[in-house]
Amino acid sequence: MIEEKREKWLVSYPDDGNSVCFEMEDMSFWYQHRNGCLVEAMKANGFPKDFLDIGGGNGITALAMQNAGYNVTLVEPYATGIENARKRGIRSTIQNTLEEYVAKVNGTAPAAGFFDVMEHISDDKSFLENINRLLTPDGRIMLTVPAFQSLWSENDVQLGHFRRYTLEQLSALLAEAGFKVTYATYFFSLVWAPMWFARVLPEKFGIKKDNTPEKKRNEHMAGRPATARLLRRLLGWEVNAIRNKTRIPFGTSCLIVAQKTRAL
C-alpha cells in the first residue's frame, strides 16, 4: 500500500493499483458503465470542452471523454498511470500532485473531475479546497465516490479507502469548500445487493477475502464479455436517467456535479 503525506492529507492507494487496473479496465463492465454515465453527465450539465481529470490513473475515463469531443488533460502523480494513459492515446498528460499543479495554474481551470479519488485521501475537505483554488470563479466539477458506509468491507480497506459517502454528506462538504451542488445521484443501483451479500455479509461471520487481482477481474467481469454486456444492458436505464438529470435513489456509487460559488 502506498501511503504518501501531501501537505495536510495522507493519500492511500495500493502499490499495484494502476498496473492491476490497466489489465482489466477495457473489459470491465464497471469502468465502461461509469464512463457512459460520466460522459452523459458532462453533456447534460453543459461542461466546457476543456476539462482536467485529476488523479485519472491509466486514462480509461479520460479516453472516453476525449472520444466524446472533450479536450481532457490527465493530471496523475504516479508514473505508471501516465505511461499507461499515453499508451491508450491520451493526448495531454501531466505527472504532478494536485497541490503542485494548483501552484502552477491557480484559478485558471474552467472544469475538473476526480473519479473514485477522494475516498483515498484522509483530509477530503483540504483536497476540495485545493480543487477550489484550481478553478476559475465559475468553475465546474464532477466527482464520483463509493456510496454508503453500510457497504464498508475489507475490500475498502485493501483498496486504501478512508470512507464511503452519502449524497447529503458530500453536499455539506462541498458547501464548506465553496461549491454548490447542481446535480446529484447514486448509480450502480443493481450492484448494491450483490455487493452486500458478497462483501459485507461474509464479514459478519468473520470471513474476510483478499482483494487479489483475480478477484478484481472476476468482480469486473473482465474476460467474460457476454456477462459484462448483459450487466451494462441491465444498467443502461441509469445512463438515460443521468442524461435526463434524474436522481437515482440508491446505488453503490455517488455522482455529483457542482459549481464554484466563492473563492477561498
Description:
The chain is built from twelve helices and nine strands. The protein has helices spanning 17-24, 29-44, 60-67, 79-88, 98-105, 124-134, 154-159, 167-176, 192-204, 213-219, 225-234, 236-243; strands spanning 2-6, 9-13, 50-54, 71-76, 92-95, 109-115, 135-146, 179-187, 253-260. With 264 residues, the protein is α/β, with parallel strands linked by helices. Strands 5-4-3-6-7-9-8 form a seven-stranded mixed β-sheet, sandwiched between helices. Strand 1 (2-6) and strand 2 form a beta hairpin. The model has no long low-confidence stretch (mean pLDDT 92). Helix 2 crosses helix 3 (60-67). Keywords: Methyltransferase, Transferase. GO terms for molecular function: methyltransferase activity. It comes from Dyadobacter fermentans. This is SAM-dependent methyltransferase. It holds the Pfam family Methyltransf_23.
